[in-house]
Write a structure and sequence with these properties.
5 helices; mainly alpha; 155 residues; single chain
Length: 155
Amino acid sequence: MNNNDVFKKLRVALQLRDDQIVEIIELADFRISKAEIGAFFRSEDHPNYMECGDQVLRNFLNGLIIHLRGTKDAPKDPNEVIARNREQVIENKAPKAPSANTGTGPKPRPKAAGGKKPAVKKPSGGGVKGKSFAKPKQEPIVERVKYNNGKNSKG
């Protein structure tokens, strides 16, 4: 088991997103981008896969301690932090209820009778005079070929 596997398992177990991982690593005074984090979680045969070094994993673990336990001056309860994180994940996965129209954004179109969409009229006249914008008929890529399976057509 390599560092990437350990990192992946911790991410799944703690239900962390990439932006949360970046924040946790920054708690240990280490800077890393979201794209680099994503490269650690790719499959090994992917062209953008990157090995997670010892320094990155060490700083993530040190930041995770600060994230879960807090500092000496401001201690936290790890169970509360994990529960709060779990609630955020559930909220993001739950389908959002439609909100009341507050006047911002597009207004819904009125529906036609019968619950069907209103018919849209097509413009007549073809647009520009003398020019047709219809697609030309495409010829088949493969020609029709008659196979005789090795039999001669002669008697």
